[in-house]
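Minutes, project check-in
Item: structure for the 180-residue chain
Input as provided by the requester:
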Amino acid sequence: MNVQQRRRAIFLDRDGVLNRVVMRDGKAASPRAVDELQIEPDAAATLQALKAAGYLLFVVTNQPDVRRGLMSAETLEAIHARLAQALPVDEIAACLHDNIDACACRKPKPGLVLDLAERYDIDLRQSWLIGDQDRDIVCGQAASCKTILLRRDYNLGTVAVADQVVERLSQSISYILEAT
């Protein structure tokens, strides 16, 4: 009997992982315009290496600024189109809800990850979530993924315990490939 092996994936938060955050009023925030999108210098090479190792690559991101009326859905789509053009991602999944909506897809809840896992037949125990916030790590853990936290100046108070903590996205490659 030939049993097909389930796929492995890397789930990546967007802001602070694949692109730089925008500082607004002293807080890390999402870009609200295409010209504010600055992709991290090591993102493309890192994702290409992970793709070459056989991982599917998914962006999972909370984007409540659409719900809050701070940006349009069309602008968000344009930002995601630019990101998808620059990086070898398989899909970008975004939660547009705000905390008050109590949806299943807003991280730290794992809805975005679980939906992608079901649609792409992903083995979550052989997959990783990389993020820069507590909510990303909690989401990955709730979905049974291994987790990597990117240390940033704005997240020094992070309390969620990731499987690994790194300074740069490219440093995640060795941890992921060693676990394969």
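Outcome recorded: The longest helix spans residues 73-86.
No further action items on this chain.
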